[in-house]
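pinning this so it doesn't scroll away 📌
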Amino acid sequence: MKIAPVKKERTQIRFLTSLVLAAAAIVLQAGAAQAATQTKWIDYKQGDTALSGYLIYDDAVQGRRPGVLMIHDRSGFSEGTLADARMIAALGYVVFAEDIFGKGVVPKDVPEMTKLIGIYDNDRPLMRERAVAGFEVLKAQPMVDPAKLVGVGYCFGGTTGVELIETGVPLLGFISVHGAFNNFTAERAKNIKGRVLILHGAEDPVAPMEQVNILVSQLRAAKVNFELQLYSGAAHGFTHPQNPSEERADAEYKVAMARFFKDVLAN
């Protein structure tokens, strides 16, 4: 059956119109999603030291919601750190990546990173004070429920996070992702208020199992509710995977993190 020219033209117009409307809907949805995600740098201080942390959240969500304090690794506010903050915020939380090194301080290479983290590794009171300062910023955000706060630290941030929770701050849970565990004061573990999840590479040369076992013994002695997950074949920094085992660890830690936050905040 032949379609009359007018009818055929109308069919084509309807088809083109539907394509245009569909494309417009996609653009509008993308624009709405982009508009919903808010990011900003927040200046604050610890003592006389100027700091600046990264806040990210979805402003399409109404009312107060749980907050996540994120503690950066030795790279400071690198692109990787900001990407991790965006990934966690996509789970539905307000994320504040706190500043440990100081406003504008982003180490340019490994020697500079090592020098910077050495300052705090050798001055644990300063490390704790710097971490608490960021915690207070997150808690004060108007869109955050101050009764539903959790934390996550990567590498150096794992060390800093353990020092933070050992001050007794009211975090419901804390996750260490390939953290380093040394020189903690054993008695301070009794101050931990929430649950702890340790996600660690079994072949980590920076924080070998001997270190992990010491921390676990301290948590056990203090009756802390904790969980340890080891990833076989994974070394330090498995969130930047170098082999198939670390690719698996990188994927599985994200699942474990999402589950942990959901469970802790549900209670």
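📌 and the second one:
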Amino acid sequence: MARELGSTAMFVAGGTDLYPKLKRRQFEVEALIGLDFLDRRVTNETIGAGATLADVASHAGVPRGYGQAAGLVSSPPLRNAGTAGGNLCVDTRCNYYDMTYEWRKAIGFCIKKDGDICLVAPSSPRCWAVSSSDTAPMAIALDGIVSLTGPDGERELPVAALYRDDGIDYMAKQPSEVVTSLTLPADPRTRTAYVKLRRRGSIDFPIAGAAVAVQLDGDEVVGCRIVLSAVASHPLEATAAEEFLKGKRVQADTIREAADIAAKPAKPLDNADLSHFWRKRMVRVVVEQALAEATTRTAGSTVKLLGRNPD
């Protein structure tokens, strides 16, 4: 059906992101292809794309950080409807794009829909809408693998290869392909955490976030992945900070230095909630808190950051 209908159709699973955008005329399609048939099972290593975020968050066998990320998406009613596959594929966001049709028409539209310039960076030829998935950064940090099914058959792809650094053409999968499952390799040495910054404690999309997966041998870091959310058009991996941590012992000053390094590639723009200057400074804070939580097993996935002095 997707191949036959082409750009006139879209897939829908939970619809928590799609339906509001249809109401705002951000997407204009003639048909919706339902994905209710997708696998909803959740095991220790494999998550069906049709599983609700609520089921993922409450499953004891899911890696702790991934469960945190799923449990911090939006609000309880939306987590009961939104799916694991849908959150991996969630549309990029921007203050100039995620508005009503009338509002967007009044400012002349933007390059992502109906316009020809990016209103965030008018001199840029590309769209700078930000990746706003909570689960995608954590899946990348865990070396996750997605299974895709399309008209030409099935294939597997690292989650890290699923995204492009482009606010419009943000997914590397074919338009007619469906994410059917996510596999998260198990490693007993891996400790994980996801810290999300948003204005309110519920409902809001991230305005900065950090997903970390750390492999420890005692208190020595033997491997590390740090992936940032909501600071680029794709989940942004802090590779320099990862290399810095390898071989070092877990100490407060080491974590702080790694967080400083991780924040450097983050370049938030004025296209999300709150000041982009402040969001840039807070990237270091969320990375530091995620690393501390992962390496010390501290409890609590909701971290209140508003009002904290990042210095």
